[in-house]
Amino acid sequence: MRMKAALLMIPLAGLALTAQQPTPAPSQPTSASPQVPSCPELATALVNLGRNDVRLRDWPNLARYREQNRALTPPATSEARVVFMGDSITDAWPQPRYGTFFEGKPYVGRGISGQTTPQMLIRFRPDVVDLKPKVVVILAGTNDIAGNTGPMSDEEISANLMSMAEIAKANGIKVVFSSILPVSAYHTAPNGIPQTQQRPMTRIRALNDWMKTYAAAEKHTYLDYFSAMADAQGLLKTELSADDLHPNAAGYAVMGPLAEAAIKDALR
Predict the structure, then answer these.
(1) What does each C-alpha distance from 12 to 8, 17, 20, 117 come to in angstroms?
(2) CA of 110: how far to CAs of 113, 123, 166, 173, 253, in Å?
(3) 211 with 222: CB under 8 angstroms?
(4) What share of the chain is helix, strand, coil (3-state, %, to 5)?
(5) What pLDDT does residue 19 have?
(6) Which of 68, 106, 138, 202 has the fewest CB atoms in 10 Å of its CB?
(7) What are the helix and strand counts (H, E) for the chain?
C-alpha cells in the first residue's frame, strides 16, 4: 500500500512543478500567421449587450433629460410652460422634418422612444414636476399594449396614468390626457407583425374611453387625437403615417391645433 501511494504522488508532484513554471510569452504574429475572420454578428451582439446593460442600470432613462432639465431656467411668473410627456410620438415631434414644434411657445418635449407608463411614472417628477409647468400633456399607453416592458393589463395602464395625474394635481399642474392614436396595417411591418396585431384596436378604444371618462370626473382635459386621425374603418389614416404607428409631418399637422386647443382649455 505504501508503494502504491508513493507512485500516485509522483505525477501529482510533477503537475505542481509544471503549474509553477512561467507561461511563455505568446509569439508575435507574422505575415504567415492565420488571420482571425471578422464576425459582424458578434460585434452587433456586443453592442446590443452594452445598450441593454445601460438600460438595466437606468431602466426609466432618467439620464436622458437630466442635463437639459438642469439647464432649463425656471419659468417666469406669467409664463404658461407646458411639458409634453410621452413615448416616441412625443419624442420625435420636435424634429425639424415634422415641421415646427409649437414655435415661439414655452413648450417642452420630454418624450422617450419605446417607453411605457411605469417608466414615465418614475421620471414624472424630474421630467415634469421639477420643471414647474402650468400644464402637462400626457400621451402614453400604446407601448404598454404592445408589451414593451412586459405584459400590461388595461387596469395597470390606467392606474399608472391616474398616478401621474394625481402627482400633477398635487403640484398645481393641469392635466391633459391625450388619446392613444389609432394604428393600421396599410404598410409593410418591419418585423412582419402588423401594428393592429401588436396593438389591438379594441384595447386602444377601451383605454381611450376610460381616459375620457376619468378626465371628465377629475376635471382634467381629454385630448382626442383618435377621432381626427382615424379613417372610415377606424384605423390610422394611411396618409398620416409611413409605418402604421408614428405620425408623419401630415399627422403632426393634425395633432398640433388639437393640442393647442386642449392646452387652452386646461388653462381656463
Answers:
(1) 7, 9, 13, 62
(2) 10, 10, 19, 16, 19
(3) yes
(4) 50, 10, 40
(5) 40
(6) 202
(7) 12, 5
